[in-house]
Amino acid sequence: MRFAGLALAAAALAAGAAPAQERAIPSGELKSGSAFLGSDLRALQNDAFANPGMLWVERGEKLWREPAGKKNLACASCHKDTSMRGVAASYPKIDKASGKLFNLEGRINQCRTERMGAEPLRYESEDLLALTAYIARQSLGLPIAARIDGAARAHFETGRAAYHLRRGQMNLSCAHCHDAQWGKRLLSETISQGHPNAYPAYRMEWQTMGSLERRLRACLSGIRAEMLPYGSQEYLDLELFLAWRAQGLPIETPGVRR
Amino acid sequence: MAARIQIPREAKRGDVIEVRILIQHPMETGYRHDDVGHLIKRNVINALSCRYDGVEVFRADLSSGISANPYVQFYTVAEASGDLEFTWIDDEGERGSERQAIVVRG
Amino acid sequence: MKRRDFLAGAAGALALPGAALAQVDPRDPLVRALTNGAPVRKGKVTLVLPQLADNGNSVPIRITVDSPMTPADHVKSIHLYSERNPVPNMANFYLGPRAGKAEINSRVRLAGSQRVTAVAKLSDGSFWYDAAPIVVTLSACLDES
Q: Which mean pLDDT values do the consecutive 10-residue runs of chain B (106 residues) have?
């Protein structure tokens, strides 16, 4: 390990967080959220017809081909028949041109505003959920493989710090439940490892489809912490950290969750 | 309203075939509150009908007791090639429909 | 008799685990609206629900009726009742001889642990039922996102 890396690791240790290379949950012990579902919801997720999230995937497929914006282009106009397989599995990722970190939602909106002359889609809008779900579905079964090198490194570190930060009335960090207590019960629920591999997901509590950020906001609300606005840099950085933490887990979008 | 129908593409005359439908609809119960505490008005699909070549072979009265994005699965006898057409209506009078063709041999 | 009590009244006590109800109370106004006072017998209908619901918002349900589904002998309709939901008559399904098989699958909302009852009306005018108990647990965190 280079000196800079050692210093970083030491600083991270001092801050109470694990060094970058050390995973709180080793790769071999990763479990998707679907492992924590009851058999009925797991069966529903695996039913390619009845999984309610598929309604959004189908809508996304339609939207992919629909022209939008001043340039009257559809996603398909530029992407043509290029498969999006593998794309979602590599997100969040650095956009080479701008150097910014994008999640899938941000990337879709960047394409719309900069290349299609179209309005950006609001988080949790039917159309953005549909497009995100459609693109993620095309990576079904592929292992999450987001990169944390180069320009992504700083975002990864911020995300990692955010994951370990105590917050809210309950003064809990993500790590307290999802690293230290996964598999144990919280009232009637079993705590999952908190992975992002099935998002956007159809959540029973919402009775509709929602993005990963919506789920993160729900977690914050649950520990009585302040929810940040959608698209916040802190959420993006956290999404990158979560992707690294879930590295190797297969994409399951659209997940069915409680 | 978006919906998906699943029936076999082909069947033999007299076969009992499985019919599945999934409709995108919130089936708003009328018991939920919005962020400022106001009751969200009830709106559910209250009637669903399936016609096979114009003849009704299945009908359902639904209520808020049916889950959001309602899913129904039933059976019908493959009689002749043609269309299975679903129609439905919700409390606000919005109608939806979706159809799927089946080829029946024999 | 209050709707909530009709099954308890008929059986004597819901506290007896696995107690089979001899007869659905035909005096209950909900059931009466359907049967017009005719007896509702246990049998022919099988209602399948999980013993424990993952989530009360979407519980898989299967209702099967043992019937040849011929023009002379078939199921006309199946009626689903909840003893605890705010809307007790959850759904009605109308079949007929073209169904070939009397089986319905759907996903329902259940407002807490309860017994769910399915009543089938046959072409000969008779009524049959089945009931199944289910435990429904709540989510841990209140989601205000």
A: 96 98 96 87 97 97 96 98 98 98 96
- CATH number of the domain within which A233 lies: 1.10.760.10
- B20, B22, B68 member nearest A208 (Cβ): B68
Do residues C100 and C15 lie in contact, with contact meaning Cβ atoms separated by under 8 Å? no
pLDDT for A97 beyond 70:
yes
Q: For residue A26, what pLDDT is reported?
A: 95
User: What is the number of domains present in chain A?
Assistant: 2
- Could you tell me the residue range of the domain that residue A248 belongs to? 30-48+144-257
Residue-wise burial string across A86-115, b where 16 or more C-beta atoms lie within 10 A, e elsewhere: ebbbebbbbeeeeeebbbbbbbbbbbbeee
Domains of chain B: 3-105 (2.60.40.10)
- Chain C: give the shortest CA distance to residue B10, in Å: 17
Q: Which of residues 189-228 of A touch B (CB under 8 A)?
A: 202, 207-208
Spatial separation of the C-alpha atoms in residues A83 and C31, rounded to whole Å:
56
Statement to judge: residues A108 and A183 lie in one domain:
no
Chain C residues in contact with B47 by the CB 8 A cut-off are none
- Residue C93's alpha-carbon distances to A133, C102, C119, in angstroms, are 33, 10, 10
Cα separation, C7 vs C131, in Å, equals 9
A190: chain C residues, CB-CB within 8 Å: none
Same domain, A170 and A192: yes
Cβ neighbours of A207 in B, within 8 Å: 26-27, 67-69
Partner A, chain B 9-38, Cβ-Cβ below 8 Å: 20, 22, 24, 26-27
